[in-house]
Amino acid sequence: MASIRLDGVTRAFGSKIAVNDINLHVDDGEFLVLLGPSGCGKSTLLRMLAGLETLSSGQIHLDDARVDELPPSARDMAFVFQSYALYPHMSVRRNITFPLIMRQHRWWFHVPIIGDLAKRRIERSPEVRDLVDRTAQILALTEMMDRLPKTLSGGQRQRVALGRAMVRKPQVFLMDEPLSNLDAKLRTAMRAEIIKLHRQVGGTFVYVTHDQIEAMTMGTRIALMRDGVVQQFGTAREIYTNPLNTYVARFIGTPPMNLIVAEPDGEAALRLGTTSVAAPPRLTSTARAAGPGLLLGVRPSAFTLDAPDAPGTLPGEVMLVEHVGAESLIAVRLVEAKTAHLDEGDVRDEVMVTVAGYSDLQPGQRVGLGVDLAEAVVFRGADGRRVDAA
Ligand code: ATP
Fold first, then answer.
1. What is the pLDDT of residues 213-247, one digit of tens each?
2. CB of 13 closer than 6 A to ligand 1?
3. How much distance in Å is there from the Cα of 44 to the middle of ligand 1?
4. Of the four, 61, 74, 241, 248, which is 20 to 30 A from 89 by CA?
5. Is the CATH code 3.40.50.300 the one for domain 4-241?
6. pLDDT tens, 284-319?
7. Distance between CA 219 and CA 49 in Å, rounded?
8. CB 129: neighbour CB atoms within 10 A?
9. Relative to the CA of 225, which ligand 1 atom is closest?
10. Of 3.40.50.2000, 2.60.290.11, 3.40.50.2300, 2.40.50.140, which CATH number belongs to 246-387?
11. C-alpha 154 – ligand 1 centre gap (Å)
């Protein structure tokens, strides 16, 4: 196990800065998730950790040892690829054993017959066999050790790839979207496997994904990236409840946080359109200090649907109702209040509301939206930064 420290890590490809001045300290035994949309630089950062990509500037330390100038083989990290990267002509057992064979590699391993005999001797030695068998057992691969990768399902292949990383007993496991080739059900199952694996083997994990659910469920901490820059580094809970800017607020959570134009309204309320909504002092005092141009961040679950003229509610019109099992997602157009439309595809002045159970509302129906601001947050509209105390 090892802690990882990134200081000013930067990588440019020509004029494109793929990773821009990243400073992170990952504790020993942590499960760090690098999360962000396609092209934000997470794979480049992972590859720099592995030694597969050079740094333009900055340093990487593993515990107290500087590693960014070492070759990949000297870093004591194992990389698990999205594509599994298994050897197609080798059995599952040989694939898992392969890193242990390579550890004892001699030039004559390449000589036909002699090389193969030598590899087989290593494979059959009691300590190697024992380690490989125990690994296979943890990953439920015992029954398929003699099969070739092409006869395995995607999930089984991914487990072989994990096994190959585990037998090396590395200080750090690096994983680049290892579940992205699997179907939704298998992803959920493998997600649980990897969390269990982290608990069992206890190494430091760095895991790349663009899937916020994976990040939220797996990571002890998440670094959410955009355009090569870490936007926020924290636990899933911190990032969900205390987003530092509108980008983070909108990236985490499905449907995302709503951003409604707001202004201060006395000491105990905020005004949304023409409606005055009771707000905690945390919001009202900072809103008053920050001045105009505020965006109020409200999670879809903080709304309640009421009669059209119920006092203290925002007048709205139901646009769409989607039933997704235990809850209903409802798009409501605000009649008076305004929303910020930051992303392409955002519909102007619509908010997303989630309610438990099956909603009988119909598109076109008028409603009054109650809003509970206990968990709401406030951003500055001009630059999207958080203004109430995080
Ligand atoms: P994805 O999820 O799509 O893999 P990512 O977040 O992992 O995306 P990277 O692969 O790290 O993103 O790429 C970050 C940026 O750097 C992208 O704009 C990409 O085009 C660019 N980039 C990456 N590798 C190279 C390279 N070898 N040469 C030029 N540009 C590169």
1. 999 999 999 999 999 999 999 999 999 999 999 99
2. yes
3. 6
4. 74
5. yes
6. 988 888 877 899 999 999 999 999 989 999 999 999
7. 18
8. 14
9. 6
10. 2.40.50.140
11. 25
